[in-house]
Design goal:
The protein is an alpha/beta fold and about 375 residues long. The chain has a domain at about 30-135 and about 295-379: Isopropylmalate Dehydrogenase. Helix content is about 45%, strand content about 15%. The chain has 15 helices and 12 strands. α2 packs across α13 (about 320-335) and α7 packs across α8. The structure holds 3-isopropylmalic acid and magnesium ion (MG). 3-isopropylmalic acid (IPM) binds next to α6. Magnesium ion binds next to α11.
């Protein structure tokens, strides 16, 4: 046992030094990137696993239509990236194989379908690897339910917390397991700034800082303290402190939720709250997600690869709404708000007002392809 403890302690020292280096790198890194006037934008398109390729195909067709002129002139390039599949990842023994990562890094922005993560074992989630390798620190998820007065946007820290070392915990077999949660100064400051900048630019008056700082005193305590330091630079915006449990309750409390605007959360709480919020909007199949970094940004559906849907032969009936929402966010990010608006408008027509082709996710509804055809007609 002494030997096991010594080796665990040595592993801990390695982790601590690595995380310290990461914090120092972040202090020097770029905050975000402006695509206005960029003369070439490479959009990487990644199908992923399960229903991923089915839904991404439709989003790609929509982008091809919307970006026709730019694609023809070569200002925008759509680049298919192969090999981010569970089979290839298992064969290479890497959550994102080196060759695939190199391709991905040659892109400016990415549109990505869901990828499957094997449970247990040591294979890290491809999402988590990509977020770390590309340093995509801000996970931005809008949720709107107009008839309920809900217009929310979540700024979830995307590289730290329980995720930073989630596949590198310590185990004393048969006795105990320990995972680590990491909060850094620079990592918190940049996500807090992203949330408050957004609030300022979009005329929002409140940011809810969501932690469990009464229990996770070091990590969440630091997150809350730094968020308030950043908030002080935005005197016109009210920073509110919330604990994640009561926030989860109030997302379903009609008396309170309409007053919530911008959320700033550490990684895991943001993961959970955004699924809950998406459910209020009509399910995780309807919500898009942006992963923004200083150099690159990745846009994806917030749901998983739905292996059960593939197994029961309903893969072709998957709902592309979430990845189309992600495509809309991508267009906004690359400074093409007019194209993003066109896509949003067509989506509203197809899913809310006209609804001639309705996807249910099951055999009783339209196929993903049929919906894609319908959308193209309206674009
Ligand atoms: C999400 C997903 C991911 C996460 C998974 C696929 C690793 O749930 O994007 O919210 O936990 O962050
Ligand atoms: Mg999630």
């Amino acid at each position: 046992m002494d030997e096991l403890i010594r080796s665990a302690a040595a592993q801990f020292e390695t982790l601590l030094r690595e995380q310290l280096q990461r914090q120092e790198r972040m202090e020097k890194g770029a905050f975000t990137r402006d695509f206005k006037g960029a003369d070439r934008i490479v959009i990487g398109v990644i199908g992923g696993d399960g229903i991923g390729p089915v839904i991404v195909r439709e989003a790609k067709r929509a982008l091809e239509k919307l970006l026709g002129d730019e694609l023809a002139s070569g200002r925008v390039v759509l680049k298919e990236i192969e090999g981010l599949t569970l089979e290839n990842r298992m064969a290479c023994g890497q959550s994102v194989p080196d060759a695939v990562l190199a391709e991905i890094k040659s892109c400016d922005v990415l549109l990505k379908g869901p990828t499957t993560t094997p449970k247990g074992g040591t294979m890290e989630s491809a999402n988590v690897t990509l977020r770390r390798e590309l340093d995509l620190y801000a996970n931005v998820r809008p949720v709107t339910v107009p008839e309920e007065g809900i217009d929310w946007i979540f700024f979830r820290e995307n590289t730290e917390g329980e995720y930073a070392l989630g596949s590198r915990g310590i185990e004393l077999p048969g006795r105990l397991s320990m995972d680590f949660k990491v909060t850094t100064d620079a990592g918190t400051r940049r996500i807090a700034r992203a949330a408050f900048d957004y609030a300022r630019l979009n005329g929002k008056t409140k940011v809810a800082i969501v932690t469990k700082a009464n229990i996770m005193k070091k990590t969440d305590g630091m997150f809350s303290r730094i968020a308030h330091e950043v908030a002080a630079e935005y005197p016109e915006i009210t920073a509110e402190d919330w604990y994640v449990d009561i926030m989860a309750a109030n997302l379903v409390n009609p008396a309170v939720r309409g007053g919530l605007q911008v959320f700033l959360t550490p990684n895991l709480y943001g993961d959970i709250l955004t699924d809950e919020a998406a459910q209020l909007q009509g399910g995780v199949g309807t919500a898009g997600s942006a992963n923004i970094g200083g150099a690159c940004a990745m846009f994806e559906a917030i749901h998983g690869s739905a292996p059960r849907k593939i197994a029961n032969g309903e893969g072709d009936y998957a709902n592309p709404a979430s990845i189309l929402k992600a495509a809309e966010m991508l267009l906004r990010h690359i400074a093409m708000p007019d194209r993003a608006d066109r896509l949003a408008q067509a989506m509203r027509l197809c899913t809310e007002t006209e609804k001639r082709v309705v996807v249910t996710g099951h055999r009783d509804g339209a196929t993903c392809r049929a919906f894609g055809d319908y959308l193209l007609e309206k674009l």
